[in-house]
Amino acid sequence: MPYLLALASALLYGAADFTGGLATRRTGVLPVLVVSQLSGLVLLLLLLPLLPAASPSRADLLWGLSAALSGSVGVALLYHGLAIGRMAVVAPTTAVCAVAIPVLVSLLLGERPGPPALAGILLGVGSIVLVSQQTAAGTGAGAPDRSKWRLPAGVGIALVSGVAIGLFFLSLAQTRPEAGLWPILVSRAVSATLFGAGAAAGRESLRLPGVLLLTLACGAMDMSANALYLLAARVGPLSVVVTLASLYPASTVLLARVVLGERLNGRQVAGVGCALAAIVLIVSGGRP
Questions:
Q1: Based on the structure, what is the number of domains in the chain?
Q2: What residues of the chain score a pLDDT lower than 50?
Q3: Structural domain span for residue 88
């Protein structure tokens, strides 16, 4: 069950990143962040009365606050990177850092996945690296290819975003099952407040002509992905769960290919194949 929850969260994270990135290409980043965060918050508030009663501790709420601060930085930088760079490059680059931090911490704390699952984790990280590869632009005959020394657009931002998102994953995983979804509620309420304050200070208009539905869908999918990840992280090994959840670039890349016509090169196709193989290894060899 935790593996299915983590995979479902990956699909939703990827779709949310695609819709959010697409919306920010047509309007400002901050208005998209405010409206998407608010839509996710409203969705959770509507669902909360229907969920089992929870008793969050002070520590659970503080971890939610930690997730809010790191997640706000991560998602803001991610959407900016998606707006200025190629989605097929920015999303996987972010995921490499996002998966590395929780996996390393969980291993340092003594978590030991089975050999197949460990191989799947390594293959999953490798698949993210492969999916992030892009074909370099051609250069003139005899001209040195200086492009290989430059990061593609948005990649530097994506690296910092990935560190912040990794801390977000790690923070949510520290909460207790008894806390229910309250840590996510705290996280989303704080992030929505921060982005709202930023928009007010900058006198940003929250009107989103042509992308309102896209932005609302982004917020709903991102909130759903967070909830599924939190449930998975509470019942499964963190190193395995976070790796599966971090395979979200595969769906972002495929959506970018279908909707935007971004072409996949041989390495990216191989990366998608490795991601599927990693899923098989993790599910067959992980310790629930």
A1: 1
A2: 137-149, 286-288
A3: 2-134+154-285
